[in-house]
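Recap for those who missed Tuesday's class. We walked through two folding examples back to back. For each one, the amino acid string is listed first and its predicted structure tokens come directly after. Nothing is annotated here on purpose, so try labeling regions yourself before you check the end of the notes.
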Amino acid sequence: MSQSKGGFVAAVPPREGRATDLLCIGRGIADLYAEQLGGRLEDAVSFSAYIGGSATNICVGVQRLGLQTGMILRVGDDHMGRLVRETLDRNGVDTAGVIFDPKAPTPLCILGVRDSQTFPRDLFTEGGAYLNLSEDDLDPAMFRNARALLVNGSFFATESLRRASRRALDLARQAGCATALDIDYRPALWGLVGHGSGEAAYVESPQATQAYTEFLSDFDLIVGTEEEIAIVGGSRDSLAAVGNIRAKSRATIVLKRGPLGCVGFEGAIPDDVEKGQVVPGFRVEVTNTAGAGDSFMAGLIAGWLNGSDLCDSSRLANACGAINVARHGCSDSAPSDRETALFMAEGGIARPDTDARMRNLHALLGRQEKPLPQSLLDARDGLTPPKAIRAALEQGQAQGVIWPVTDSFAELAPVTGRRFWLARAIETGPMLADGIRLARQIRSWPRDHVVHLDARGPEDASTVAAIAETAADSRHEIVVDLRPSPDPETTARAILARDIRPEWWIVRPEAQKALDAALAGQDIPPRGVIRA
């Protein structure tokens, strides 16, 4: 029978002496999401890059909800591996356990949104780095410093990963950690369907059921969809499946039911699924369900680790999943504790992706590191050659630059990706063609380039708002330059009144107090104010 401690809250040790709330072991990959919605993957023409993999998504999600997480993972020593590591770092995740594999590549998942029910995906994981995680990669000190361990059930698909999982669970038990199983059943990862059927949720497999069964007694919390509970419990009847799991484990079992919410079972299994602890979901407009289950798991675990009961934890989980399905991407869509508090206080928000308050809060997450420039080189007059701008940055003569309008990416390449504060001037115009050109231009920029906007007066607020939304869609930050304005405070207030929260402002030193007055009491402060 189960080695788990039994009881939802009782399973979790206190924080004293443990700096990490949750260690995660499982899949870590790069996701390439088609930007064209409603079509076939074959007809996609551009993609957005995010990090993915259930354990990685959950790790980021729990961190965003205010707890400290750590990831144990192998990634390739390649560009996508660095994307995974850097994104985890930017979200505050402890990456001491993330290892660059010198031989294996970082796996990829290519995804699309066909309609609200269909999300095609190709999984390219064979020979991938995360599959090489071994027992030797596990540092016992990390487990002694953690309160809980999460394991992806997809790690039970190969013998070597089963050994690594067994070692991790042994270390967790020795350290007194609580343990959680994210069932994470993907038939493609078990070789039951081809890599082009990554969206397949269920294929019956006695071998998979047996592999899961061998680990059930090691967990305090077991969570899965109806299909995942079916494979672990060996029955398509949810009640029978949950009963079969209970026969082998005292863990709290949570059955995810998509928009209907979830059902939890702490003790004996009743004679009807609906007699479990039913917690209804939130109604939102669906964009993409991929990653929603991972956000759900992040919310459930955050509540669990914070000492909330099963009902309250499940409600938080449902909110996290609902917010995620309204957005594009997996881990990048995971909400923060401030977002979930707002969402739940209003009983749900039908379009969290377009709600200005949610959008502004979400923009705070996963930001790239950028220094606040104490000295700014304004090169918009075009008189400073690109080589001279580069020299000024590299030699510390300037800590930031406003680059003149240019379509030449080669000019900026030498200073891009080096943590310089780099803003780019743009040209606006009154015609529709001007707006289309500008949106296309910004979308082609690297993410670390900041969109520079001159604000000459309150009448510019609508232009700033439109460009800010364009920048947000492509994950760029904006800087509003108030130096051309004769009344910076009024101009700033007009922009803020449009529910725009610029990451950066530029003011003349004598106008600092005026901007401070406009920003006083704002819900979201800027990253920095540059006096120049």
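Example two. Treat it independently of the first, because the proteins are unrelated.
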Amino acid sequence: MTPEDPDVVASAAAPGDEGPPLELVCRDRLLAKGRRQWLENSGCAARGSFTSGGFRLDQGGRVLIAQGSLVLGDEKGSGKDAAGLVGFLGSLCLELWAHGAEPVGLLDSLRVGGSSSAMMAAREPEQIRGELHAAAQSLGLGVFGGECGTSLQAFDTLFVVMVGVLPRVPRRDRAKRGGLGDRIYRVRLPEVSLAERPSNFLAVGQALREACQKDALSWVGTCRDGGLIAAVDWLETTGKGLKLEPRATARAALVDPEPETFLVAALGDMNPAGLLPDNVEVVEVGWIGEERLIDLEALEGSTLRLRPEEIRRDHQSPDFADADSGLESPLAAAEDYEKTLFELLPDFRMLSPRSAEGRESPHQGLPRLSGDVGLVRLGARRDLLALAVGSAQSFSSLDPYIGACLAVCRVTRALAASGAEALGLLVTLPGEKEPGADLVYEGLRNAADGLGTTVEMAIASEGAGAAPVVIALGRPSATRLVPSRFQRPGDFAVLLGRTREELSGSLYERHLCGVCPGTPPWVDLNAERRLQDMVRVAGEADLLQSALSLMSGGLIRGALEACGVDERAGQLLGLVGESDENIRPDAWLFAESPSRILVSVAPEDFSLLKERADRSQIQHRFLGEIGGDRLEIRGQLSVALESLRRAWHGSTDGDG
């Protein structure tokens, strides 16, 4: 046991034993959750649980976001069961309800611990996502989309972004948040059976919305990561101080996660107990102070005051491979690309989760997009919001700075391919204990600046490792959204962007030789921005029939999804594509170079697309004509689409 582990610190003090000092407990917890860096680095633009004002809808109201992470199946008890998932999602709903917003759906990112082989064992990711969908539906939520990938962590981790609609702007947004002397209360939901939990959350949530509409509450903070993190969120969000009494500063209350507990600030003499159901426990635990600090009065009579300027961290250089060792790994090419493709299909399937529909389908009348892009209609006027989620775990392990840049590029490029422009980014950061955390923060900021967007909101997660999960929120800018699937036989398939011989960190390399040291893909933020801008403008001009951003799995996985192989039913459109003789054949198929989008255009529009690409200094390559029942890359592979579809979805019958 080490004092640096906050969970060990919290449990180290047995009844009657003093245990480690309260200051050590608190500072260690802040370190694990990344709060030290946020409090002293205003450039990160992290503002607690919500953006300062949310995203305005065209016809009034706002979109609010809550996000969180859940470690599944760790030694403290399985969060993978239905009760744990319902409690986790319910706590996110409570954040939105407490701000007067109505939760409508979510986007998820599942990081599966262990190697790629563990990822395929017992179809575990599909089971987890099925349980997530069931928990979401019990709360009346839709699942708009998501992504799945591997992690170097020991346990699976689920990241969720929940979307809510605020129909009007609360008056407290135009006033100061709370007044000096306003009371702080701890609100805890009652313990009920699994069957009663969704209705319990819904009843409390409705009461919180009504309290918000009456302007009875000035602030709400979730204790999902412990009371201390809720208090620090208060400091970040309001800039005012917080005085907590001993009943709120017990070690367990400060450190232990309590997803069904939260802190609220009531205006004036208002007591929230009169606004909530009778079975909800409401206890007064503190009040608002003027000085910007957290004042913790301990049970033993001592007082600990945490000020942002006093919370510092000891800088440690990240322990990564020496720069001189970052040469491309000497990976021998596979002998049979068709065989390798079939062996990789289970990984492709896990990386391409399909969105699940809630009580009201968000996809009615909308095109089908890739699985990591979700669409939802919000508000009375049905404004359209697009969301994309992604990370770059395999590249973050090679270089955390480049991995963070690639994650930002992935999600913004996915939105651009669909015809949407990023409004802002939401990120799940690694805790400061993770090697290279500073490089991750720097990569996120620089990539966001280079692509013309901003980090609007951030949380820290102990299960994130060195790889941030990034979510981009966007608003469609085109007259129509651009689907990701090929649409018509006879159209031309074109690859926009440059493919390099970059195989380190790719699924292909991990399949052949496991995790190897190497150099991550080259990142050119200027080229990335030119590509995204050009594709969005081409979509607005109705020039593109389809567009799909290439990410994990490279060109071959993108071609499979564009042909419709990842759908269990529906039309399959083949492609006879050309190869690039100037690079290794396996790099052409499997390299994961960024800044690439696979598009299709009508033959009569091909010359115009080339002109636009040349004007934007974007490399382009004609792949071939769409049609037929096979996917063929000349000289490398030729496989029947029906055979690929059966193998993708787990059936092994049929021939190639």
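Answers for example two:
The longest helix spans residues 400-418.
The two ends are 55 Å apart (CA to CA).
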